[in-house]
Amino acid sequence: MQGIVCGYNAKSGSGTVGLTVVESGLTCDQFAPTIPMAAAGGNKVEQIPGLGECNTLVALLSGKTTMTVVYHKHTVTLSVGKKLTPELKAQIIDLAKQILPKL
User: Each residue of 55-71: pLDDT tens digit?
Assistant: First the structure.
């Protein structure tokens, strides 16, 4: 891990939101083995085509939702302390699309 580019954590009435952008040097080949681990224990994992170089959207059984995107050797992670809904999924994808061009 090279260094944190930015980090944000906030608690609101509807849950906790966290965002980290790390200059990780990670490639998709290095990231790919983590995808089956994310699905462990019945978590729902999906990949969003065309978002970054590679990504995972994980709906944890605990009700938390996390998206990780690898892009230009940066790792962007967005965590939301809410159960994944179609609306939340759209918001997370939109936010990632806004962040990635800035890297």
Answer: 999 999 999 999 999 99
- Positive or negative, the CA dihedral 39, 92, 23, 27 is positive
Instruction: Report how far residue 75's alpha carbon sits from residue 83's, in angstroms, rounded to the nearest whole number.
Output: 23
Q: Please tell me the total count of domains within the chain.
A: 1
Rounded CA-CA distance 75/96 in Å is 11
Element at 94 (helix H, strand E): helix 86-99
- The domain of 50 spans 3-102
d(CA 25, CA 60): 26
**Dihedral sign from CA coordinates of 57, 60, 66, 68:** negative
Over the stretch 76-90, which tens digit does the pLDDT of each residue have? Answer: 999 999 999 999 999
pTM of the full predicted structure?
A: 0.87
